[in-house]
Design a protein that fits this description.
alpha/beta, two-stranded antiparallel ribbon, about 200 residues, four-stranded parallel beta sheet, Helicase, Ruva Protein, domain 3, 8 helices, 6 strands, Dna Topoisomerase Vi A Subunit, Chain: A, domain 2
Length: about 200
Amino acid sequence: MYKYPEPLKKLVEQLMKLPGVGRKTADRLAFHIVRLSPPEALRLSQAIQEVTSRLQLCSHCQNLTEIDPCPLCSDPARDKRLLCVVESPADVTAIEKSGAFKGCYFVLHGAVAPLQGVGPEDLRLDRLKNLVIQRSVREVIISTNLTVEGNATAVYIADLLKPLNVQVSRPACGLPVGADIEYMDPVTIEKSISGRCKL
């Protein structure tokens, strides 16, 4: 039976450690990398090295940044008393693309997931609480994913912040723009009906 050469085998093993990458995808990516020209392969390698050596967590919001504090936390035009809590840096990017939010963020880097060994103590929630106190935050929008873990995290954070008398909210959820109701799942329809707004 054919076995991969050792360098290719090591590359496949490392690629399989990436989230959502199984054996077939890792094989496909590895063979693509092997076909890169030496300058292209070097640029890819350098990009991976730079992202691990140059990025750090912002001491305020925990988002990825090259400078501390990050540009969002340093922006005087941002409302420091309005805080949006998200699970990942990718969530910050998605919300920023909408242009709908002008406050600051706090990135959890995960959600409460006991089955995966992630507890509240792993999410830097003490830093979140301190930030809310230091900035006299008036509202915390908990924008965790609409999953079991995301909802459990939202409930935990709401309970944690209750003694601080800060308004805690959750983004509205329901039908996406341009969607056909007939293709929506029952939970989405229920959320959109219960969260309806007046015309």
